[in-house]
Design brief:
Length: 203
């Protein structure tokens, strides 16, 4: 935490891919939207999404670890204003499958924060194969103009393979339907990165 404070004092614009991601989410998400947190972790992203969609919105928060779902539930309970609480549905399971009740083309934003659960078991990480399956499904549920936001962590074992597979996946998408970009630090080796996929309004 002390290091992050120093970084914020030194570089006010952004210090992590999540800073960049959050800025994009705030531009895209509107009150009343449906959003999906595909890897809810400890709930920090879920809280921001809840504040963005407001009481009229809906969040589907997914994670394969029961510890993550419990941590997110507790974090939201402690930090979310009751008057602005959206409908929140938790889905315990692999992100390669979303709850079947999500209608195609109904979701404004799907968020991935890949890697392992902070302060959790570092041996339990997201896998390339299931992440790619999840992205294929996310493309179907995202509405025209909607976004898929993916924070990658190439510094941990397997993270570089996962990131490269996602980049290759994004590069293969039609430029007529998808706008894809990749953010990374040029002077920080193995730093986290951000990949954004936006579906065209006429898709």
């Amino acid at each position: 935490m002390a290091r992050l404070v120093r970084m914020r004092n030194q570089f006010s614009l952004f210090q992590s891919p999540l800073d960049l991601a959050h800025g994009y989410w705030k531009q895209v998400v509107k009150k009343g939207d449906i959003v999906v947190d595909a890897t809810c972790g400890n709930g920090h992203d879920t809280l921001l999404l809840a504040n963005l969609v407001g009481s009229a919105g809906s969040i589907i928060a997914c994670d394969v670890q029961s510890q993550a779902v419990q941590s997110t539930t507790e974090y939201l309970s402690a930090n979310l204003q009751k008057s602005d609480t959206p409908k929140i549905e938790f889905a315990l399971g692999c992100h390669s499958r979303f709850p079947e009740q999500i209608n195609l083309g109904s979701v404004r934003l799907v968020v991935y924060n890949l890697g392992y659960l902070p302060r959790g078991d570092k041996a339990l990480i997201t896998k390339t194969e299931t992440t790619l399956k999840s992205l294929s499904h996310a493309m179907e549920i995202v509405m025209p103009g909607g976004v898929i936001s993916i924070s990658c962590y190439p510094g941990h074992e397997g993270g570089d393979k996962e990131e490269q597979a996602i980049i290759s996946f994004a590069e293969s998408l039609s430029k007529e339907v998808w706008s894809c970009c990749y953010h990374r630090w040029l002077n920080r080796k193995n730093s986290p990165t951000l990949i954004l996929l936006q579906k065209g309004l006429l898709a």
